[in-house]
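Hey, weird one. I pasted the YqzG/YhdC family protein sequence into the form twice and got a warning about non-standard characters only the second time. First submission, copied straight from the form history:
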Amino acid sequence: MSQRYPKAITGTARAGVLLALLAIAVWTALAVRAEQADAADTTYHKWSLIAIEETKHKYPQASLVDYLHIGRTQLEGGLSEEKFKLWLRQADREFGVFVTVRFNDAEDRLISVAMSETPR
Protein backbone atom coordinates (compact mmCIF):
# COMPACT_ATOMS: atom_id res chain seq x y z
CA MET A 1 0.00 0.00 0.00
CA SER A 2 1.49 3.40 -0.99
CA GLN A 3 1.49 6.32 1.33
CA ARG A 4 0.41 9.72 0.06
CA TYR A 5 1.59 13.13 1.25
CA PRO A 6 -0.99 15.66 2.34
CA LYS A 7 -1.95 18.14 -0.38
CA ALA A 8 -0.32 21.06 1.46
CA ILE A 9 3.05 19.33 1.52
CA THR A 10 2.74 18.26 -2.11
CA GLY A 11 1.87 21.84 -3.12
CA THR A 12 4.82 23.22 -1.14
CA ALA A 13 7.19 20.65 -2.64
CA ARG A 14 5.91 21.43 -6.13
CA ALA A 15 6.44 25.18 -5.56
CA GLY A 16 9.97 24.46 -4.33
CA VAL A 17 10.77 22.42 -7.43
CA LEU A 18 9.35 25.15 -9.68
CA LEU A 19 11.38 27.78 -7.84
CA ALA A 20 14.55 25.69 -8.22
CA LEU A 21 13.89 25.25 -11.96
CA LEU A 22 13.33 28.99 -12.32
CA ALA A 23 16.60 29.71 -10.51
CA ILE A 24 18.45 27.30 -12.82
CA ALA A 25 16.91 28.95 -15.90
CA VAL A 26 17.87 32.44 -14.70
CA TRP A 27 21.41 31.30 -13.83
CA THR A 28 21.81 29.72 -17.28
CA ALA A 29 20.50 32.83 -19.05
CA LEU A 30 22.91 35.06 -17.13
CA ALA A 31 25.85 32.77 -17.95
CA VAL A 32 24.96 32.84 -21.67
CA ARG A 33 24.68 36.65 -21.64
CA ALA A 34 28.05 36.98 -19.89
CA GLU A 35 29.65 34.66 -22.45
CA GLN A 36 28.16 36.69 -25.32
CA ALA A 37 29.39 39.93 -23.74
CA ASP A 38 32.90 38.48 -23.41
CA ALA A 39 32.84 37.48 -27.09
CA ALA A 40 31.67 40.96 -28.09
CA ASP A 41 34.44 42.57 -26.02
CA THR A 42 37.12 40.61 -27.82
CA THR A 43 36.00 41.83 -31.26
CA TYR A 44 37.20 45.38 -30.60
CA HIS A 45 39.75 44.80 -27.84
CA LYS A 46 42.79 44.86 -30.15
CA TRP A 47 41.62 48.08 -31.80
CA SER A 48 40.90 49.77 -28.45
CA LEU A 49 44.48 49.10 -27.35
CA ILE A 50 45.74 50.68 -30.59
CA ALA A 51 43.45 53.70 -30.07
CA ILE A 52 44.75 54.18 -26.53
CA GLU A 53 48.41 53.74 -27.55
CA GLU A 54 48.14 56.22 -30.43
CA THR A 55 46.42 58.72 -28.14
CA LYS A 56 49.28 58.37 -25.62
CA HIS A 57 51.73 59.18 -28.43
CA LYS A 58 49.81 62.31 -29.41
CA TYR A 59 49.15 63.44 -25.82
CA PRO A 60 52.12 62.11 -23.79
CA GLN A 61 51.48 64.39 -20.78
CA ALA A 62 47.81 63.41 -20.49
CA SER A 63 46.39 60.62 -18.37
CA LEU A 64 43.45 58.49 -19.48
CA VAL A 65 40.38 59.12 -17.35
CA ASP A 66 37.85 56.98 -19.22
CA TYR A 67 37.00 55.56 -22.60
CA LEU A 68 33.92 54.48 -24.50
CA HIS A 69 33.57 52.10 -27.43
CA ILE A 70 31.13 53.88 -29.74
CA GLY A 71 30.80 51.08 -32.28
CA ARG A 72 31.89 49.43 -35.48
CA THR A 73 31.06 50.56 -39.00
CA GLN A 74 31.44 48.23 -41.99
CA LEU A 75 32.90 50.02 -45.02
CA GLU A 76 33.24 48.94 -48.63
CA GLY A 77 36.17 46.84 -49.80
CA GLY A 78 36.39 44.67 -46.68
CA LEU A 79 37.29 47.60 -44.44
CA SER A 80 35.84 48.42 -41.04
CA GLU A 81 36.16 51.21 -38.51
CA GLU A 82 35.99 51.05 -34.74
CA LYS A 83 35.19 54.35 -33.04
CA PHE A 84 36.12 55.30 -29.50
CA LYS A 85 35.84 58.34 -27.27
CA LEU A 86 38.69 58.78 -24.81
CA TRP A 87 38.51 61.24 -21.93
CA LEU A 88 41.89 62.70 -20.95
CA ARG A 89 43.27 64.88 -18.16
CA GLN A 90 46.29 67.09 -18.79
CA ALA A 91 47.41 69.65 -16.22
CA ASP A 92 44.25 71.58 -15.24
CA ARG A 93 42.28 70.61 -18.34
CA GLU A 94 40.02 67.65 -19.12
CA PHE A 95 38.97 66.95 -22.69
CA GLY A 96 37.66 64.25 -24.99
CA VAL A 97 39.25 62.77 -28.08
CA PHE A 98 37.39 60.81 -30.74
CA VAL A 99 39.58 58.06 -32.19
CA THR A 100 38.69 56.16 -35.36
CA VAL A 101 40.67 53.01 -36.13
CA ARG A 102 40.30 51.78 -39.72
CA PHE A 103 41.38 48.23 -40.55
CA ASN A 104 41.05 45.42 -43.06
CA ASP A 105 38.72 42.77 -41.64
CA ALA A 106 39.96 39.76 -43.59
CA GLU A 107 43.64 40.43 -42.98
CA ASP A 108 43.14 41.88 -39.46
CA ARG A 109 45.51 44.65 -40.58
CA LEU A 110 45.59 48.26 -39.39
CA ILE A 111 45.00 50.85 -42.12
CA SER A 112 44.85 54.16 -40.25
CA VAL A 113 44.12 55.95 -36.97
CA ALA A 114 42.41 59.34 -36.95
CA MET A 115 41.88 61.60 -33.91
CA SER A 116 39.96 64.77 -33.20
CA GLU A 117 39.31 66.58 -29.94
CA THR A 118 35.71 66.99 -28.88
CA PRO A 119 34.33 70.52 -28.85
CA ARG A 120 33.60 70.14 -25.14
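That's the output from the first submission. The warning seems to come from a hidden character in my clipboard, not from the data itself. Residues 7-117 form a domain with the Nuclear Transport Factor 2; Chain: A, fold (CATH 3.10.450.390).
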